[in-house]
Write a structure and sequence with these properties.
The protein is of the alpha/beta class. It has a domain of 146 residues: Dihydrodipicolinate Reductase, domain 2 (2-Layer Sandwich). Helix content is 35%, strand content 27%. It contains eight helices and twelve strands. The strands form two sheets. Strands 11-10-6-9-8-7-12 form a seven-stranded mixed β-sheet, with helices on one face. A five-stranded parallel β-sheet has the order 2-1-3-4-5, sandwiched between helices. Strand 7 and strand 8 form a beta hairpin. The radius of gyration is 19 Å and the shape is globular. The termini are far apart.
Length: 289
Amino acid sequence: MSQSRPIRNSEDTGSDFGRVLVVGDPGLCNHHIRAWKLAGVDARRISSFGKAIASNKNEKIYIDVCITNFTDRSAFIEDAIRSKSSIIIVEPVSDKCDTAKIHHKKHIRSSVSVLDPMKHHPLISRALQLISEGKIGPPRILKLEAKIYDRSLSDFSLFQGLLNGVSAARLLFRGTLVEKVFAKKLATEYSNFYVALLNFEKHSTCQLIVGDSKVEDKIDFSTTGPNGMISFDSSSESSDLPSNNSVEVMSKTFSDFLHQRDLGSIDLEKYRIAEAIQNSAQLKKQISL
């Protein structure tokens, strides 16, 4: 296996960035390695969690965590924090809000960066720009579908799709608080997903269809505001935009982190809303936040 090429004080990255070791699920690791290379950083996979952490003692190593078992993921994050390793996590951090809170408190004092790919998705960016320019106005009604492609329909990808959808909704509503949630969890031969209705402050509403799919990776949404309605469809044949979990979006996420346009902080409100959706689906009742 070839060695990674260190990039230090590079004009390409705008930061002092060393090698990247990618740890975890082989398929996801390969996905992230391709994205790092597009961002201008060579990365390589390492199979041993212990070796990844030990490598950090010898030189400046960044560890990209691609572990898709939430128990193992949390344990690795804790070990990395204790060893003062520099780690990068593409959300989700955990599928439990309380665990995310614990990691959040500790990562503030350590070299842990948590990246949200929805912040860097071109469809979301385009919609936010149109809202800022007053061309569509702030959304009052949002319909959004976000699904992660996963042939195994794992619990990890199901929650990743849920968190991506919640994150996109929060970005489009610009931090407006959610007051109530009602949700159902559904399954088909090709997908696991949540259907949720979110009531925001200022009488705004959002309908989410979020989860994973054996068929495709997508994010589609439409917003209705004071200046009318507009739709965005990443799966349209005429669309030249990437889907929400594509290498291109991951590369943009890593690039913005390298250029310090994303400081890698955790928005705990997303996890609180995601947990409310899970609880509502399980209890089959409306949840107030």
